[in-house]
Amino acid sequence: MNEKRVIGRRELISILDLELYDLDAKVDTGADSNSLHCDDIVVDEHNFVHFKLLDEVHPSYNDKKMKMPIYKIKKVKSSNGSVELRPSIKVTVKFFGKTYKTVVSLTNRADMKYPMLIGRKFLANKFLVDVSHEYLAKA
Predict the structure, then answer these.
(1) CA distance 136 to 139
(2) What span, in angstroms and rounded, lies between the C-alpha atoms of 80 and 91?
């Protein structure tokens, strides 16, 4: 059996393809997938998604315009029960010193405290969540 790393309820994650480093992320075992806070999300006719990064904590990322190929467009039910169609992208992330390929859906999380949400598909078979801790990757 693989040894699973213990992580806290909040951690830092870097999305290498977007040059986003040390983003504050909420670890959410109730969420199926990862999501990233952005704005002005537009899907073009060539299967690319254009979006603007929003992260006031990291001024160099805030309002940065990005373009990525679409991995998939899927229906996602948010925590308030509403369903929306969200584009997702496949990216490489750095988490706890290792790199992983993962899928991230793009959505406006303006009403949320953390710009990134880490869901259970990414966590499965790799990590255990100890909700009494935060930022164990820094330790």
Answers:
(1) 5
(2) 27
